[in-house]
Write a structure and sequence with these properties.
Largest sheet: 2 strands, antiparallel
Shape: globular
InterPro entries: ADC_synthase, Chorismate_C
Radius of gyration: 16 Å
Protein name: Chorismate-binding protein
Number of strands: 4
GO molecular function: isochorismate synthase activity
Strand order of the largest sheet: 1-2
Length: 110
């Protein structure tokens, strides 16, 4: 994937984005399906966050829970991977737990 010695960790992050876990596979048809089903913009959800030094080394993670914090509002994002054998109630509970983590970090009581 990154055989060129000039390839940086950021280049690799871009090559792997979006991951099948948050988009599906094959990527293009999965993205089209998501666009036709979801009625909202994912904004920064499932984007990658991290750092890279001057030599191109770095560390990146996928934002599986995040928040858009504005002066008077907070919009939370979280999701769960749906795969064969997934149980909808378990996935909903996982998303609730992720929201709880973000709400706690922001100082909100549920």
């Amino acid at each position: 994937m990154c055989r060129d010695p000039r390839c940086s960790s950021l280049d690799l992050a871009f090559a792997l984005h979006p991951t099948p876990a948050v988009c599906g596979y094959p990527t293009e048809s999965a993205m089209n399906a998501i666009s036709s089903i979801e009625s909202f913009d994912r904004e920064l959800y499932a984007g990658f966050v991290g750092w890279m030094d001057a030599s191109g080394d770095g560390e990146w993670a996928v934002a599986l829970r995040c928040a858009n914090v504005a002066r008077q509002s907070v919009k939370l994002f979280a999701g769960a991977g749906i795969v064969a054998g997934s149980r909808p109630l378990d996935e909903a509970a996982e998303i609730e737990a992720k929201f709880g983590t973000v709400l706690g970090a922001l100082g909100f009581v549920r």
